Amino acid sequence: MKNLSAKKKILIAVIVVLVIAAVVVAAVLITSSSSKPAGEPQKIGVPDDGTNLSRAIKLLETAGLIEVDPAVGFTPEVKDVTKYIYNIEIMPVAANTLPATLDDYAASTINGTYATSAGLKPSKDALLIEKQDEGAENPFVNIIVARTEEKDNETYKTIVEAYQTQLVAEFLLVNYAESYFPAFPYDAEAEFTVTPEVAQEIVSYESPKDGKTVVKVGVCGSQNDQWKAVQKVLDDEGANIYIELVEFDAYTLPNEALNSGEIDLNSFQHKAFLQNEIDVNGYDLTVIGDTLIAPLSLYSKNFESLDALKDAAGLVK
Fold first, then answer.
1. Helix (H), strand (E) counts: the chain
2. Residue 312 and residue 317: Cα distance in Å, rounded?
3. 41-52 pLDDT, tens per residue?
């Protein structure tokens, strides 16, 4: 480089410096991209109460976000999550706070009653709805229950058949704004005959009791107008059966009343609750028909789809 001019020497030096700098920057970028620590996990709000917490964890498993110990069946807790497939954090909180705090989480699992009260519609707003197919193994499907010795009672079978009709399915969907879904076969593509106006007519429906076989059905809570629809079906078919609802103010009472013979049937609980009652109290009761499911659904105000949520969370490496 003796014969090079001073300007050329300076130019070559600058070029060398730039090349070295480029190599260093590239090395830094490669290193940072390959060893970049995981970002903050996407927080998922779930109900903190026993049954609904388990349902929420199973829903997140269905979504492909986590894996759960299969040995725990349908009743997992957070500790039973064996693998986080995506970078999420499960946040158990009071169920009734989830709609109001939806902005604070990447997504939240909210049950039908709280969701619809907050203006959320599962079929339109949910990223994922809890499985509700008829015949599914979901233990959170609600049911009609009889004493085991009367499981083949023809009158009770007629009531189950009346419940599991298109009219009742449409009433459940229309009157309860999708906080309930039918847990039996129905035609979701049919042009519904039950409009909001017709639903109100059904709610006001009164059936004469005289001369009919009276069947006492134990229920809890205030959302039992679907039994008006069942009664209308029975009357339209000339079944000569009158359903008398017996309201209980505690969930521990209807199974005891049914087991002791104070009522004929009950319809207020899902399969998991009944099985626990049988295991603990020794009741001799049997499911004779599925009715509805109040699905737990995954909602988000921050992501428009489950895939978008997954992209934001990223796979756990």
1. 11, 14
2. 14
3. 999 999 998 788
